[in-house]
Design goal:
Elements lengths: L7 E4 L8 E2 L6 E9 L8 E8 L14 H17 L13 E3 L33 E2 L20 E6 L17 H4 L4 E2 L1 E3 L5 E3 L2 E6 L5 E6 L13 H12 L5 H4 L3 E8 L2 E6 L6 H4 L6 E2 L20 E3 L8 E6 L13 E6 L3 H9 L5 E4 L4 H6 L3 E15 L13 H10 L2 H8 L5 E2 L23 H10 L6 E6 L6 H12 L3 E6 L6 H6 L5 E7 L3 H9 L13 H11 L3 H17 L3 E13 L3 E3 L13 E3 L2
Parallel strand pairs: 1-7, 1-19, 7-18, 22-23
Antiparallel strand pairs: 2-6, 3-4, 5-20, 8-15, 9-10, 11-12, 12-14, 13-14, 16-17, 17-18, 19-25, 20-24, 20-25, 21-25, 26-27
């Protein structure tokens, strides 16, 4: 394969059953991400609410202390450093697995600690909970030839499956959208590969004693491309705008009570209660800054005006190809080696993979079932933990649309009807972790035994259906995601049919799919949501006001346990989260089957590193191979 120096072509193919979001949400919903599409010829859109700020717990590696104790010890240390004005940047990087073509030596990079989950104190709020992005979909390829050149300059060519829905950074909805926004917008902080905050526009930060006031010190040499300064007033305007927006940032910034401009380079942010995810949120879309004069005039709907390393070129063809040229006045040029970035929209996964094999694309998202094929063609594949839970999401837990779903026995029957091992082996090639719970394997709420709570047992499922009065089954309306997940949808259809449930798939409108989901149009959906830190998951999917608790089911027991965990630390908090997790699994709020990996195929001319809690590698982590 031809080595590419100075030119990078990247294609993305998100695998998510319905939608997901990480960028941002409480932590980066990040990644809430969701992919929207119209059948066959329509636009496919990935939305990842990359809760793009997820600062949560890591799995405990000390058998003598228990997971939460270690998390809180580290969290307390981080908070103490923050209060002293220190910058917290863990040395370790996220685990990265590399798959090489036959005959090549394996290259496995591993690093240790995961970001830690800290102690949360706040009154149980009615604020909208973190929306998580759903990564759903297929990605396409760029058909442009590789550009030659030195290790700097040239063109970075990205291929995505959907256009940006808005240039208002606070309204970010999808994972792929970070590739549109990162070139043009600076964020207050810049998260490292562990998802921990580091300096960017803000060079220093510190909390007061009770972690309810965050003080930021800003650079004095950053300007928007319209010539106005990125100062304290600009920060205030952006945070206040994003807090009331429609994207994941509103969730991430929900604790903001007041923003005070101390002087042009100093801002104090008052929170209604401590928020352990707040700092990393400022390193994602929630912390991206647009020119204040464009925030309210509506122009950001079509044209971004930021202070980032690139500007959007007039040669851009909206909805088709987006072209970015270098911002010559940018303050941190060395971080971005390419003179130009293009993002071209495609909707054919096979074309994307063929482009990678032909050397026309340098980086593509690769589904688990395609890893072997890509590797055998000579391309390297790197995999990063995704922290996403794929499965059948049973939103209508009170039976508002489908009365049967209001019976826990029916929801449990659906869980028993799923052959998770078969799904894991056949559809995901054994990559990732088979699961029956929403909480991440790295969270303090995780209990290994819960993954075995619903063994494949059709007989048991039928018994439960009969006990609930549905021996003859019922009809279950769901969105048709077959254009993206044909195998998963076929497997779910068969599993439901085996216990008498008829899956009735409804055509999806790519323009309204996400709003339809969030508006409780569908009682269930094949879906993918972020599974991150314990606190993040409660705010993304369990809180009565959580964005992805789409019917806003208010279970008193869940509310009680969330509130209890907020006032605890260490092993006590971990125990409460585990009790919450157990209850949610017993109540069968979800029917997940895997927490998968995110994999990317690389050409020989490219290196790419992932970022924890982010579905897509950030643009600055895509570099020419040395």
């Amino acid at each position: 394969m031809r080595a590419l120096s100075g030119s990078l072509k990247l294609a993305s193919h998100l695998s998510i059953p319905g939608i997901t979001g990480r960028y941002p949400p409480t932590p980066y919903l990040c990644s809430f991400w969701a992919k929207v599409w119209t059948r066959r010829t329509g636009t496919r859109k990935q939305a990842v609410l990359r809760h793009e700020s997820r600062s949560g717990p890591g799995r405990d590696s000390n058998p003598n202390t228990g997971p939460e104790q270690r998390n809180n010890d580290v969290s307390s240390s981080l908070l103490r450093q923050s209060r002293r004005g220190g910058r917290v940047t863990p040395a370790a990087t996220a685990l990265q697995r590399r798959h090489r073509s036959p005959g090549e030596a394996a290259d496995v990079r591993s690093t240790t600690p995961q970001p830690k989950e800290t102690h949360m104190r706040r009154k149980f709020a009615t604020a909208a909970a973190a929306a998580i992005a759903i990564a759903l979909a297929a990605t396409a390829c760029s058909g442009q030839p590789a550009a030659g050149g030195s290790s700097t300059g040239g063109t970075l060519s990205l291929a995505t499956v959907s256009p940006p829905q808005s240039w208002q950074p606070g309204d970010l909805l999808t994972g792929p959208e970070i590739w549109y926004t990162q070139p043009v917008y600076d964020s207050l902080l810049r998260n490292d590969n562990e998802g921990e905050p580091g300096a960017n526009v803000a060079t220093e930060w510190s909390y007061n004693d009770d972690s309810t006031v965050l003080s930021l010190k800003l650079r004095d040499d950053v300007k928007f491309t319209d010539g106005t300064p990125l100062d304290g007033e600009a920060v205030k305007a952006n945070l206040e705008s994003a807090k009331t927006g429609s994207g994941g940032s509103a969730t991430q910034l929900r604790f903001i009570e007041e923003v005070t401009v101390v002087d042009p380079t100093a801002v104090d942010i008052k929170l209604s209660a401590p928020d352990p995810s707040f700092l990393p949120s400022l390193g994602g879309p929630a912390g991206m800054m647009a020119s204040p004069s464009h925030l309210e005039d509506g122009s950001l709907a079509t044209t971004p005006v930021g202070s980032g390393p690139y500007t959007l070129s007039p040669s851009t063809q909206a909805g088709s190809k987006y072209v970015y040229t270098r911002n010559a006045d940018y303050w941190n040029q060395e971080l971005y080696p390419y003179d130009e970035i293009t993002a071209t929209i495609f909707n054919d996964k096979n074309a994307m993979l063929n482009a990678l094999r032909a050397g026309q694309v340098d980086v593509t998202n690769v589904e688990p079932k395609d890893i072997e094929s890509v590797s055998s063609s000579g391309q390297e594949v790197v995999s990063f933990p995704s922290y996403n839970a794929n499965g059948l999401y049973l939103f209508d837990r009170e039976g508002t649309i489908v009365p049967a779903l209001g019976d826990v026995r029916v929801r449990q029957a659906i869980n028993y009807a799923l052959d998770r091992q078969s799904l894991f082996d056949q559809l995901y090639d054994g990559k990732g972790a088979k699961t029956a719970q929403m909480f991440s394997v790295d969270s303090t709420a995780y209990l290994p035994e819960l993954d075995e709570r619903y063994p494949y047992d059709v007989t048991k499922a039928k018994e439960l259906m009969a006990e609930a009065g549905y021996a003859d089954g019922f009809v279950l309306p769901m969105p048709d995601v077959s254009p993206i997940y044909p195998s998963e949808q076929a497997a779910v259809t068969e599993a439901l049919a085996a216990i008498g449930i008829t899956a009735e798939y409804q055509p999806v409108n790519g323009e309204t799919f996400i709003s339809d989901l969030l508006g409780a149009k569908y009682p269930a959906a094949i879906f993918r949501l972020d599974a991150n830190r314990s606190w993040d998951t409660t705010q993304i999917a369990l809180d009565p006001d959580a964005l992805w608790n789409t019917f806003h089911v208010n279970d008193p027991k869940i509310v009680e346990l969330i509130t209890k965990a907020q006032g605890e630390t260490g092993d006590e908090q971990a125990k409460t989260f585990q009790e919450l997790n157990t209850y949610v699994v017993e109540q069968a709020w979800f029917a997940p089957w895997i927490q998968g990996d995110n994999s990317f195929g690389l050409s020989s001319g490219v290196t790419a590193e992932g970022q924890k809690y982010s579905t897509f590698p950030p643009i600055w982590n895509i570099q020419p191979a040395s």
